[in-house]
Amino acid sequence: MAIDLAPPPPPPPPLAGELEVAGAAVGGKKEEGEGEEGGVCGGEAVVVAAADAEVEGHPYDFHVSGPRNLPPPNWREIIRSSWKDPNYKRMVMACFIQAVYLLELDRQDEKGEEDGLAPKWWKPFKYKVTQTLVDERDGSIYGAILEWDRSSALSDLILIRPSGAPRAVLALRGTLLQKPTIKRDLQDDLRFLVWESLKGSVRYIGALEALKTAVERFGSANVSVAGHSLGAGFALQVCKELAKQGVFVECHLFNPPSVSLAMGVRSMSEKASYLWKKVKASLPLTEEALPDSTKEEGSAKKKLRADKKWVPHLYVNSSDYICCHYNAPNCSTTTTTTTTDGASDEQRQQRKASEIAGDVVAKLFVTSKGPQKFLEAHGLEQWWSDGMELQLAVYDSKLIYRQLKSLYTATAPSPPAK
């Protein structure tokens, strides 16, 4: 279940009795002499506030807590696009999700584009919000469509869209523990916990419709989807729905939820089945004697390798117990390489990926030196931090295979929409 712990808006200050809770929500404060930490709306999106005491502004301002060392937008983007760097793309996708968190907080504070915090998180990348996804039950914003802003790009002499930059991005936020939206957010958290599915949610329907519309307008190759925590759960499932129809959309999943009661029951069943197989291990089985479930699983794996596949990008932190189960390897071959910000690392990633392309089911990025405390490990800020060091594992982990198996087998019925 993806529960995102978000702090309250800065003003007004918390009452004395609320101080402890507010401190926990933002990840606490460091000892005297160190920098302060602030919580990002996004719950787990814990943002490091001004690392420098000289930086002034709201803790959620892009120039305060956003990424550093951004390449300045100019005509050189036409020749050498920053979007070809997977680390840059990861950073931008995380910033777009942060913008959705802030869109909801701006709405609660009755702020618009002129005085809101959210626009500062998409304008530096020459994008604009063309549609917000609103939950009709409580009026909260849970997602947005961002499109390439040609007029803004022309102001910096960027005449055409850089290679690798999507025409449109669907960004989906996670849970906000704020009174206006907490009820509906937690309902979907519980829905995933019980069913391991979000198809019954009205937000799933809204996100799927928005994604289909974007694909019809721009083509699947020009559309990307990004989600964090609960939003990553929605992103995974709407992209899977299109993949079943042969429409493959680039998908970036940050701290996707990996814990559910349904998974626990299935895990116990698998353990019992494993023990039973050990008892029967001495008995030789012919192909005809194999159980139907074993034949179906083998057939599904063959299909995974034979067919053209949809390969999502997952970003997890091993210290985050909500998403760490994605890192459990399957019995198949696994290839891992260390990546840092740099062109040579990008080339090594691509070379390693191409070597085992026939077995790729997903690209799993695991932080090797990321935050260790849960609130920070489940946070969004880590994914746009400078010097991020990841382990790129290109393989079909046990949980990833389970999540994507429905693309090649019959799907189970989903709970009714409410």
TrEMBL record:
Residues 1-15 have a biased composition (Pro residues). Residues 1-39, 334-353 are annotated as: Disordered. SUPFAM superfamilies: alpha/beta-Hydrolases. This is Fungal lipase-like domain-containing protein.
